[in-house]
Structures are given as structure tokens and as C-alpha cells.
Amino acid sequence: MARNGLKVEAFDIGKRGSSSDVVFDALRDAIIRGQLAEGEILRQDTLAQMFNISRIPVREALQRLEAQGLVTSTRYKGVVVTPMSIAEIEEVFEFRALLEPRVIAFAVPQMTEQSLAQARAYCEAFAAETHPTRWGDLNRQFHSALYADARRPYFMSVIDKTNDRIDRYVRAQLELTHGMERARRDHQAILDACAAGDAQAAADLTREHIVNAGRTLVAFLKAAGR
Fold first, then answer.
1. Quick check: pTM over 0.90?
2. I want to staple 171 with a disulfide (CB 3.0 to 4.6 A). Which of 40, 136, 179, 183 is the partner?
3. Is 133 in the same domain as 72?
4. Do 60 and 158 belong to one domain?
């Protein structure tokens, strides 16, 4: 539930015997889902009160979020949810278009039936989902299932952190630019290439999918006056 105006799922950590990991996970999830808007101020005292803990684990959680680029410490406002410029968003999508096709190309030759079945389930769930709040999660789960057999844990950690930075924008792109129909078609084409064992086609389709999503999002943001 939201307390003190912040849309964060808060609970009494003092009763759970947990740590700053719980605060980190809650804030990260709220930022990724867009529940905490870019530029929103995150006050340590408020968060400590929400989670019924001292400021120390809150400060540790905020430092970890800052290391991932999700929040920024400012001189006058304190810690705020990091806003991204159009130039930064373009660069992130350019980076994804370089890295993710490479990873899926590694994965296809050693992709298991289990991974394909899992990706197919996510693909079908994504296509059938009508609630926008679920689109972002299913989109990431679909791609992650197809990348898993690449056996490149460092690559995957970079992809995860990169997607954390822009996840809220990807969700906006799907919801506000009517991008779901194109995404459904793209996902099915990528899945079919993987099932056929065609690594080059899977890589090319993944690159095209990412480039198109980035262009659509940037065009929308520019039209909205960002």
C-alpha cells in the first residue's frame, strides 16, 4: 500500500527481521513499474517510517539504487528517481540492439525444449494479456527465457540492469503507442526462428524488434514535448 504519498508497497520490516534488501527490492519494483515517477523525491526519514526501520538500511538501499542508475543524489532535493533524456533512451536502445541479438545467437544452437516451451508460454500469455500492468513483466520474461541458454551470465546481468533503467519507458511504449500488436507479431516471429534453430534470423528479428520499439518510444516522447 502507499503511505505518505509514495506509491511503494511498504510493510513492517521490523516484524520480518529483514534488511535493506527488502527496501531495495520494493523501491526498485516501484520505479520499474512507473509507480514512482521520474524526479520524485525519496526521503530517507519517510521511507524509514514506512518500513519501520532505521535510516541506515534505507540509505544502503538508496546507494544500491544509485549504483544502478535508478535514483540520483542531488544537492538541493536529495535522492530523486532518475529522469532520462531522449538522448539517453536512444543510447540505451542502441546498446540493447547490439547486445541482445548477440546473446540470442549464442542461445539458439543450445536451446532446450524446456526453454522453448517456457518462452512459448510467456509469448502466449503476453499475447492474451489485456491488463497493461502485466505487459512489461511478460515481455521481459519472454526475452529472458530465450536468452537463458546462451550461458552468458555476465551478459545477462548487464541486460537486466539495462532493462531496469528503461523498463518504465518500455511499459509506456507498449501502453501509450499501441505497440502491443507489433510486439505480439515480433515475439511470435522470434520464437519461430528459435524453434527452427535459425540463430541468424532470431538475431536479426530481435535487433529489428528492439530498434523499432526504441524509435516508436522516442517519437512518442518527442510528440509529447519531452
1. no
2. 136
3. no
4. no
